[in-house]
């Protein structure tokens, strides 16, 4: 079977960008095609979905029809700046994150929550994100390593986020009991993608799947302190999955299940 995508670089890519692109190609089992100053040619795709393009400061997916999406830390930048100024962050507060903690993000998406969590837990802690869509995982994994921003705290947090390309339910089942402090779910990414304009490539790749009861059961087994769910306000998912809502914003809410070890 033909690999779903090919990996290349931006024009006049540095040696660092080439190394990053080759690492992604090897890790995901996709072909690496040197750019060599050429445009992206549809005929070179051989029926694949598109390209993963890695540059000195960017990573993006470009589909065969020309639509694309790129990694960007987005609101994580604003949230980290607020934390630096001494303002609380709802996820950090609800999850109870502090230096040295470990958080497993089961629905990584574009990694904004994971980046904020990585800042909160610091160098002593650990944040790992699980993403079921390989193309999204690859763009985010590369972007976390090459994206540049003037605020060093943001860059340091991005570099510390680990990415696992896998379906979260199967991945959770492989982990030891009590191996993470906090397990986090944010299926909002799936719905937000379906509703958004101008990100056709990302919308086509996303898996709009709800969190299963089995996944929550595994998360409860793994989390030493709590499991956290982000959903829309008034969502029936909190009750269906057994979460207690502890924080509500204008559009979203956070619920928890406490665990004990």
Report on the structure:
- The chain is an alpha/beta fold and 261 residues long.
- It has two domains: 52 residues; 184 residues, Rossmann fold (3-Layer(aba) Sandwich), CATH 3.40.50.
- Helix content is 37%, strand content 23%.
- It has eleven helices and eleven strands.
- The strands form two sheets. It has a seven-stranded mixed β-sheet, sandwiched between helices.
- Helix 1 runs antiparallel to helix 5 and helix 4 packs across helix 6.
- About 3% of the residues have low confidence.
Oligomer: single chain
Structural class: alpha/beta
CATH domain class of the largest domain: Alpha Beta
Strand-residue fraction? 15-25%
Largest sheet: 7 strands, mixed
**What is the name of the CATH architecture of the largest domain?**
3-Layer(aba) Sandwich
Total strand segments: 11
CATH H-tier superfamily of the largest domain = Vaccinia Virus protein VP39
Radius of gyration, taken over Cα atoms and rounded to an integer in Å = 19 Å
Instruction: Give the N-terminus to C-terminus distance in angstroms.
Output: 45 Å
Question: How confident overall, as mean pLDDT?
Answer: 90
Largest beta sheet: strand ordering: 7-6-5-8-9-11-10
Number of domains: 2
Instruction: Show unreliable segments.
Output: 192-198
Number of helices: 11
Q: What is the N-to-C order of secondary-structure elements (H for helix, E for strand)?
A: EHEEEHHEHEHHEHEHHHEHEE
Helix content: 25-40%
CATH topology of the largest domain: Rossmann fold
Principal-axis shape: globular
